[in-house]
Design brief:
12% strand, alpha/beta, seven-stranded mixed beta sheet, globular
Amino acid sequence: MALSASRHLHGQQRLAVQAIATSRNGGNTQLMASRASKAVPVFNTSVKTLQEVVKLGKSEELSNRQLFARLQADPKTVDRLDMLRLGSEKLGRFERKKWFRYEEPEVKLPHVSFFAGAQVVSSFPQESLPEVGIVGRSNVGKSTLVNQLCGSSAARVSDKPGLTQQINFYTADNDFHLVDMPGYGFAYVKEDAQKHWLPLIESYIRERKTLRRVLVLLDARHGIKANDREFMALLDRTHTKYQLVLTKCDLVHRIDLAKRHLLVSQEVDKARNCIPRVMMLSAKHGPGLNELRKEILHTCNLGQKYLGTHKKKEVIAQSEYFEQLKVYKDTARAKKRRQ
């Protein structure tokens, strides 16, 4: 009897321990789920654009985040990002890291140096060379991009948004000008100063005959925001050619970056004066910078002068990369069959 009672007691204790463990696991599961939901980035592209791309049924109602999760990334864009090593990457449990990389031929711009700053229209330098403007929300990385494009520290960089408080002109070896404009949106400056910047920028865009293109920088984590749409509308009203550039791509997962590129491209199709090609780069690590340098040189009709043999080098480098990629995929398939 004593033995039976002892077993019964141990059985009850075991059940109690299992119940506690189950409740703890359930709590951990809920905690992990809540953390996962918080880890998902908040995307600011319009719900209307998401709905158009995802093609919801009439009875379906999904949040912006759910729509983005359902969106299918373009496989060609993902492959391109993989080749250029753009976007953060997370390998699967049995996935091997590539032992090779695309050795992209480097493109260099002429030596760039600061030569003029303007806080009023009368201070604009005389129109002479082709100009490419760079603009975007405060802290999107304009000054950092100028320095990385030029391989110098011509532009001042700060963690504090709104450091650029005038239109800065940089000359590229008397071939063209890069123009860094003040950031719009949030900035640690007085409201009066911000109100002064917009008319200054608008005057520059309207009156500058040598302006070939404006590069509008967008944070890849957020896409097109309300301030960006307002500025794009201004460029459309003034019939100014512009092109969208996604920056800080190293902070976004590769698949999410491909989805972001798809959504931004959808909105670009509706703009009157926007160049259809949406560019992506990481000024911090370098991928994508060569593509933008080429775009700037071609915009200023300097392709023949600075990109004479580049195309041939690029074809050879891509051919070598795709050969290595085929070997990598074949060995991965063989390994999967053995498992």
